[in-house]
Write a structure and sequence with these properties.
Number of domains: 2
Strand content: 15-25%
Structural class: alpha/beta
CATH superfamily of the largest domain: Response regulator
Distance between the termini: 30 Å
CATH architecture of the largest domain: 3-Layer(aba) Sandwich
Order of helices and strands: EHEHEHEHEHEEEEHHHEEH
Bound molecules: calcium ion
Number of strands: 11
Number of helices: 9
Strand order of the largest sheet: 2-1-3-4-5
Low-confidence stretches: 222-226
Largest sheet: 5 strands, parallel
Amino acid sequence: MRLLLVEDDRNLNRQIATALADAGYAVDKAFDGEDGQHLGESEPYDAVILDLGLPGIDGVSMLTNWRRAGRKMPVLILTARDRWSDKVQGFDAGADDYLAKPFHMEELLARIRALLRRATGHATSELVAGTIRLDTRSGRVTVDGLPIKLTSHEYRLLSYLMHHAGRIVSRGELTEHLYDQDFDRDSNTIEVFVGRLRKKLGVDLIQTIRGLGYLIDRPGAAETAK
Ligand code: CA
């Protein structure tokens, strides 16, 4: 999952970005309105954390512009405490959630997890596919109840495919959602990561759909389709 963080307070930006990276997300950072506006318009983010008071373009205007341009990613706004009018403006502009400053990082992470699972149609923070369980809170992955160790890239890949279980995900989509903008994408091909991940999982979970991409079956998908 790849996130955009727009926050002009450099110290806070760094703290949030570090916490998000530690939690296994790819993070792009913007420190002003113009940069944030441009990234949110042009890159495919799974969610955005958006401060409202920014130099250049303010957060509400930015959000309004994104929504007008048809960008649908979930957006969590950061507001100053007790500014209820900010929250109303933010929600009306298309925000999905808000957090008042100062906040606990754990709460921000929990809210991001909730936004991501709602956006992908999951009701719980533990994702299950066959014998594989992925706990989005702890980042723990088990096969048949036994924990396995994944690198951050392998975890990100598995998490993205499990969030989107039941849908074929192309290599291009994976490339766009697993790496931040500064990452050297050429030297780390998706095929290599999928191969390593399959080996570690040791079960036939990730299907290759020739010419299209990868698929993890969604349990009960056949029932809900009836
Ligand atoms: Ca600010």
